[in-house]
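HOLO CASE FILE
Compound: iron/sulfur cluster
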Amino acid sequence: MPQTKKIAEQLTSTCSYCGVGCGVLIQKEKNGNIFVEGDKNHPSSKGMLCSKGLNLHHTVNDKSDRLLYPQMRYNKSMPLQRVSWDDALERSAAVFKTFIEKYGPNSVAFYASGQCLTEEYYVINKLIKGFIGSNNIDTNSRLCMSSAVVGYKMSIGEDSVPICYDDIELADCFYVTGANPAWCHPIIWRRVEAHKAANPDVKIIIVDPRVTDTCAIADLHLQLNPGTDITLNHAIGRLLIEQGYIDINFIQQHAEGYEAYKAVVFEKSLEEAAHICGLNPNDIRLAAQYIGEAKGFISMWTMGLNQSAIGTNKNLSLINLNLITGQIGKPGAGPFSLTGQPNAMGGREVGGLSNLLPAHRNLNNPLHRQEVQAFWGGKEIQEKPGLTATEMFEALETGQLKAIWILCTNPLTSLPNTRQAEAALKKAKFVVVQEISNKPETLAYADVVLPAAAWAEKEGTMTNSERRITYLHKAVDAPGEALPDAEIICKFAQKMGYNSFSYNNVEEIFIEHTKLTKGTNIDIFGLNYTILKEHRSIQWPYKKHKQNGTKRLFEDKKFYTPSQKAILHAVPDTLTSEKPNPDFPFILTTGRIRDQWHTRSKTGKVNKLNQHIKQAYLEIHVQDAEQLELKEDDIAIITSARGEVRAKVKIGNTIKPGVVFLPMHWGKILGNDLNRANNITNDLLDPISKEPDFKYCAVKVAKYQKP
Ligand code: SF4
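Model generated. Tokens follow.
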């Protein structure tokens, strides 16, 4: 803490970037500026913050890019003009009402974000599902976690991360797949690093087509061919069975589907599987041995598994490894999905996706629909799921969807096949953009722009990857006329004529949400801001007699399925992604870098964070670079069937030959769309989770020649 600063106030919060959800202390200076440090009393992070978290205050103190007042235009060729809140919301309500009357409630949609607070998610979901009468709400969480959600639901009955971070120090084997936590979930990874340093016998297995910083402490790096995760997981499953490492008592008493699972993993020999994965069979044997001999085994994964056309099956094949070894519901063990966004979990708790209802209820359950409808006192809730993230943009293109309200996300950098999404947004009849920054590309297509309060400018709650709910204090006022997102949505709902949105404060929204959880598996009934402030954070389900909630799920081995048994799924390992071919011979995979967050609207304005990696780059293997006559720092042009990207060449042997990598952060913000990776990614979806195939598509690479 700088000693010269005069601190007026110190407030607790949580970091608004990744799903680790580190505790933050906001120090407020007398001049109104803030700076941050790690909160030593927050159990998730124990005082640690990574580079992004440590620079959070810059994004609040620097108001140079902030939207300050509502703006509107009456036709797309006009410039946006400043208007009052009343005018902006009355026009938005009038247009929404007209479309709903003329074309039905499914002609409008809300596209939100895993960065919204739980209370914000709650009111948007309530508005569209309970009062407008459509299920057209989805969020950018669809792009990162939906395969994990479905994986959990199909295997353990509900979208519930079973473990807590304190399990890290109790485990002796980690299988980290499709993830680079050293860069993308750094504080979780620091805990793993410290645990390994103190206990060298702890085994770390990394599964990744690239050599990343996460590999620095690996005992074994399985550098598999992209897309072969299921084949590898099945091969390990087979070895665990053959070598007697499975927990037969657990399987017999607490799991279903073992015989079918056994049959599917025995379809391929170890040698066949190793050949498909591009691995040495002995390395797969060693991985199975490490897992089999572990007293506490944690599987850890994120986008490499989720962002795939077979993402659900990849998740299931991994969770199977925990189930056959009985490594779940006990200290130091369990499947642990690393959440990408700070409140993707909270959003799902309130049902903030097109196929969910509050408190993990399901749209396809008539009793669940009735319960929620009766509680809200609104319209009949529709059974049919609404449009998902990419489907919304397709529906704009076809004209089925007339109006879209986009808040707290920048789809024109983050959606796959972005140029098509941009063309779709251009065709939309009415676009509302609710934003903090004047940079996102969506603003060019907005009919109404609503300025929102940022992190530290509003209060509410978020839930991190270990089901931990943390209260975020408001530390400073939002600039200009910007308002908290929940307040904007409630004002709009009232303009639409719905009376159930006249809350006196945000806590009333939170309390309403807790009432809907009563009696469910995520029960937080009885929780309020006073308790959260007192305890700093609580893990759901919250029970009054357990003051800090529930650390670990399923210690009684009763899963949330109808039979209370976990389900082993015998999933096929057929890859459905776009295959490389003579025209597009390389496999493209995309991902995050250490110091940037999503589309850089916040991290991109922090000089320190831009120093790490200054611009988009193409990672390519030295053999491929030689063949293409590419040199370090050349500009490459990378082309797929959907478009092209330009990026500086970074040559090395950290990636497999035949595979190239682009970071996903760059778009038009502070640049142009030429290095926007999603110009070329594929919008093919997993048929169950509807998550796009960001990690695998066919491209060609050439040296860019100046015309
Ligand atoms: Fe924020 Fe994630 Fe870094 Fe923690 S690890 S400080 S939550 S970005």
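CASE NOTES: The chain has 24 helices and 28 strands. The longest strand covers residues 643-652.
CLOSED: yes
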